[in-house]
Amino acid sequence: MQNGQWQWFRRKARQKTKKGDAKTSKNADDKEETMRLKIILLCAIFALFSASVGAQTATYTLAEFGDATNTVALTIDWVADGTGAVSWDTDVTPTNARESITEYLKGMMCVRAITIPDGVTPPTANYDIVVNENSGDVFGGTLANRSATATEFSCPDVLADATLAAFGGAIFYDTWTVSVTNAGSGGTGQLILIFAR
Fold first, then answer.
1. How far apart (Å, rounded) are the C-alpha atoms in residues 109 and 196?
2. 5: Cβ contacts below 8 Å, ≥ 6 apart
3. Which pLDDT value is given to residue 106?
4. In total, how many domains does the chain have?
5. Enclosing domain of residue 6
6. How far apart are CA 157 and CA 139, in angstroms?
7. What is the spatial distance between Cα 19 and Cα 1, in angstroms, rounded to a whole number?
8. Residue 98 CB neighbour total at 10 angstroms
9. Residue at which a domain ends, from 31, 54, 77
10. Which residue in 140, 114, 146, 143 sits closest to 127, CA to CA?
């Protein structure tokens, strides 16, 4: 084989080797990129899961009963966040409703509160609930130190005095904010507020 032909074969062999190396390199790059995408996706899923686990939730139902809807029960199902807290207010408008809960309840009197701890993931014992309006705690502290196992009932303490108690009804005239504290991470419960006209 002449020297020129030999060099031609060597060039061809080098080109094939380079093409093979390029294919191998491209496959390795593709695999590395795929692995990077998988890691990013897993991190995103983990971050999303972590965010949802620590978040508080509060859902509500509004049920009317009695003649001419004279009595209404506002039920708030809640799950505490990572700090054991929940906050919810009446400025929400139910689906297909003309007005917010605040507007609907204006002028009604809250006569009773019922607290029901969840049987599977109960709140921490002696958790606290405060129902605030502009003037302060509507229940005057009677929803403090709730049981983690028993259903409990309370009425608004209209005096909100540590030494005297005068239980009665609290007129709803502005937004009420429900705050749950000390319930433990993920603690779950229910608050039912009974209103009458």
1. 5
2. none
3. 92
4. 2
5. 1-54
6. 5
7. 25
8. 8
9. 54
10. 146
Q: Evaluate whether 162 touches 142 at the Cβ level (below 8 Å).
A: no
CA distance 115 to 154: 8
Residue 76: closest CA among 68, 86, 66: 86
Q: In terms of Cα–Cα distance, which of 108, 90, 110, 111 is closest to 99?
A: 90
Question: Does pLDDT of 28 surpass 70?
Answer: no
> Hey, which residues does 189 pair with through a beta bridge?
78, 117
CB neighbours (10 Å) of residue 82?
13
Centre a 10 Å sphere on the Cβ of residue 118 and count the other Cβ atoms it contains: 16
Within this chain, do residues 108 and 138 fall inside the same structural domain, yes or no?
Answer: yes
Q: Is 59 helix (H, G, I), strand (E, B) or coil?
A: strand
Considering 49-53, 92-96, 187-191, the range whose residues carry the highest mean pLDDT is 187-191
The runs of H, that is alpha helices, within 83-191 are 101-105
Predicted structure pTM score: 0.68
Give, in order, the Cα–Cα distances in Å from 23 to each of 18, 19, 26, 31.
9, 6, 5, 12
